[in-house]
Fold:
Amino acid sequence: MGEFIWNVIFWGFIYVFIVRPIAQRYVQMNPNASHFVYILADPVKELKKYTSAQFGLQPKTASYTQTRNNLSSNFMNNMNGKILWIVGGVLLIIFLMNAIVVIPAGSTGVRTLFGKVKDKEISSGLHIINPLEHIERMTIRTEEYTMSVMQGEGQRVGADQIAALTNEGLSIDLDITVFYHLQEDRASDVYKDLGVNFQEKIIRPEIRSAIREVIAHYNAKDVYSEKRAEVSSEIQKRMIETIEPRGIGIEQVLLRNVTLPPKLSASIQEKLQAEQESQRYEFVLEKEKKEAERKRVEAEGQRDAQAIINESLTPKYLEYLYIKELKDRAGTIYVPVGNDGLPLFKSVE
Structure:
C-alpha cells in the first residue's frame, strides 16, 4: 500500500509540474493539436465538453454561453493556479522530508525502490537519498536467541527446550542461548532472502538441527558433565558453517542446562560422587607418601650429620667449645695455666 501511494505521488508530481505545462504550451502554439493533447492540458475542461456532448447539455443562447464560459474560464484558471501551487508545495515538502533519513547507531538501512532491493546498505548517520526509496532499518547489534524450559525466558512464551537423542538412544532436554549479529554488508541479502524476521526462519531451525546432529555423537554422561564445553563448541562450529554464509555472524553458543531422565540423573550423580571420593582418597594417599618420604630424608640427614659430628669430637675441640660457651657468661675470669696445670702468675718485684 505504501509503495502504491508513493507511485501515485510520483506520477502526479511528474504530470503537474512537467507533462501538463508542456501540453498547455503546445495547445497555445498549435490550436489544431490532437484531442489527447487537449486532455493532458486540461482534463477537467475536456471532461465537461465530453459530458455536454453526450447528454445534449447545450446552452440556449450565444450570450449565455459566452458569459458562462468566461466565468468558468476565469474561475478555473484561478483555481487551477492555486491548486497547482498547493499541490506542488505539499509534494515538495513530502519529497524533502522523505529525502532526509537518519539511521541510528547500531543499525543499518536497506534501500528498496518500487519493490527492488538495492545492494548498497546505508550505515548509521544522516543521509540524503532518493525520495522515492523506502528504507528498512535493521539492527546490527549483538542479539540473543534463547530456547529454555523456563516459561518466558526465551523467545517463546511456553517451554521451549530442545529434545535430542544421545548415542545411547536416551532422550535429553537442553536449554541453549545463541549470540549472533547481522553482518552489515550482507543486510540487503538477508532482507531479500529472509525478510526482517529472519530469526524464526533460519536461527531457530539451525539451532535445533545443529544440537541434534552434535548430541548424537556423545553419551548422556559426557553431555551432562565434563564435555559440556566441548559440545557447545561443536554446536557453534556447525552453526557457523551453515548460517554465516547467509549473512548472519555467530558469536557464542551457551549450553546452559541439560535435563536427564530422573533415574539416569541419579545414577550419574552417584557415579560422579564415587569418582570424586576415589580421587580424594588417591590424593590423601599421595600426600602421605610424600610426607613419609620427607621424614625419611630428614632422618637420613640427621643421621649423617650426627656421624660427622662424632668423628670430629676430639678433646681439644670439646675444650674449645667449652671455652667458647663461657665467653657469654657474666663474671667469668680467664686464668692461664702452665704445663703442670697450675695457674700462671706474673712475678712481683
Summary: Strands lie at 100-103, 107-113, 116-117, 125-128, 134-139, 143-147, 162-165, 171-182, 248-259. Residues 17 and 242 are 52 Å apart (CA to CA). Confidence is low (pLDDT under 50) at residues 57-61.
